[in-house]
Amino acid sequence: MQRRYVTVDVFTNRVFGGNPLAVVLDAEGLSANQMQAIATEFNYSETTFVLPPWAAGHTAHVRIFTPRTEIPFAGHPNVGTGVVLARELQAKGGAPLERLVFEEAAGLVPIRILRDGDTVVGAELTAPAALGLGSQVSAPDVAACLCLDATDISLKNHPPQVVSVGLPFLIAELTSKDVLRRAKPNALTSEHVLPPVGTDAIFAYTLGSTPEELHARMFSPLDGIPEDPATGSAAAATIALLATLRPERDGEIAWRIEQGVDMGRPSLLLGRTEKRDGIATAVHIAGFAVQVMRGFIDFPAA
Known about the structure:
Helix content is 21%, strand content 41%. It has helices spanning 32-42, 75-91, 139-145, 177-182, 187-193, 232-245; strands at residues 2-10, 19-24, 47-51, 60-65, 70-71, 99-104, 107-116, 119-126, 132-136, 161-164, 168-173, 202-207, 213-220, 225-228, 251-259, 267-276, 279-298.
């Protein structure tokens, strides 16, 4: 049995930057176990599987797997899969796609295609869920998970807290870029701290030269991802939280998130939040993507 695949580097405009993603096309007929085996074989932070949509008017049903498990939503898989599908259709002579809708476990994910002339260069997703606030975690516990001191955790804007717009992360602001650079995951402490609050990942960030510029790193050792080069779902949840905390009642805010620099895969995520009556009503994450490989997966039918 064969299945086509395409790999792309997401949240970058150059090969071997950003976050790699494998997109398995024509995934109909694959079992969940087969999908998991393929994702484990690629060993990227995520692999997507494109299936026919359940409802008319939707583009595809998309399932997302890490090397260890299926997840309901993620950022760079949506941007990368949107770019791949738009390019595949255009290569077959189809009408250029401007908007797509993916069915995912977390809900519907609208995708807007970004072009440079006639060329598909990127995509922007809209998160499938409103901002959800979960448990708060003490600064000493977060610091221990990141091999830092409690004084390295900033409490100026918010305490470390689990937040989600489709996938939960523990979000923590650090005091400086130097502290962010020194952070590293402690798997044993993370196993003690994270599952009880409903997540397996920490998104650590510090503010840049403006309040709308973030420098970030994401660690998920419990899911086999010591560090992720670009994490759109965590970035989306973070800017939704920060937008909610700002004093403006209404408006749209543009954000710039840099990630992956400390691991040699620099990534740029471009965010937008929409706020009405003091509530973040929509959050978007955009980025570029470049194709790296394409081919076929061969494996037994049984």
